[in-house]
Amino acid sequence: MPDMSQPELATLAQRLDRPVVLVGLMGAGKSTVGRRLAELLGVDFVDVDEEIERAANLTVAEIFERFGEEHFRDGERRVFTRLLDDSAGKGMVIAAGGGAFSEPTTRQLILSRAISVWLDSDDATLAERATRRDTRPLLREGDPREKLAELRRRRLADYGAAPIWVKSGRGAHRKVALDIAKGIERWIG
Ligand SMILES: Nc1ncnc2c1ncn2[C@@H]1O[C@H](COP(=O)(O)OP(=O)(O)OP(=O)(O)O)[C@@H](O)[C@H]1O
Ligand SMILES: O=C(O)C1=C[C@@H](O)[C@@H](O)[C@H](O)C1
Ligand SMILES: [Mg+2]
């Protein structure tokens, strides 16, 4: 299947009447590939982890340490509610945090008001990518690969609710972004 051309990407962007939300485990590439996808489509990009950090003036790790995961999920739900209100009817790309789609209210919000894409890779690749920087509180204890495998088991049914699945393999970010665009085009029909 050939990659989409720039005019085809521009046409797809014009047809988007909802934001695209990338979901999936840590290290899948939601933030980095998501930014590239937005560039290819010529639409805005927002990273929800970064939005939460900006609103709290704390890093994700600091929020987990000081207030706990539940507090972080509350902030995440509020940020998603605002973003999806602001972006209604508009094509844009949103990178979710890895656990957002496992919070039932946030998942329902995304499913009903956005096009969700499950960006996935094998656990070894995810663990290698997600531990390049020590910013992920859920991977700070124990073996990252085992933790990711456990999160996959727990979250599989949630991620599986996304209508589009794209493998984020060892190809370049651009290649994965083009695979997502193709997946969206096919899904829109
Ligand atoms: N397809 C890819 N090829 C090579 N490297 C990749 C690919 N996708 C992501 N990476 C790299 O993996 C690392 C993690 O990617 P990224 O931060 O985008 O993951 P994420 O899904 O946003 O994770 P989190 O859920 O923790 O926010 C980055 O260094 C990124 O450049
Ligand atoms: O998978 C998760 O639960 C997380 C992923 C990151 O994006 C951050 O949202 C945070 O580190 C939690
Ligand atoms: Mg990210």
TrEMBL record:
Residues given in the record as ATP binding sites: G27, A28, G29, K30, S31, T32, R136
Cofactor(s) the protein requires to work: Mg(2+)
Pfam families membership: SKI (PF01202)
One Gene Ontology molecular-function label: kinase activity
Catalyzed reaction equations: shikimate + ATP = 3-phosphoshikimate + ADP + H(+)
Record-listed E.C. numbers: 2.7.1.71
Binding site for substrate: D49, R73, G98, R155
Transmembrane regions: none
Keywords assigned by UniProt, alphabetized: Amino-acid biosynthesis, Aromatic amino acid biosynthesis, ATP-binding, Cytoplasm, Kinase, Magnesium, Metal-binding, Nucleotide-binding, Transferase
Annotated protein name in UniProt: Shikimate kinase
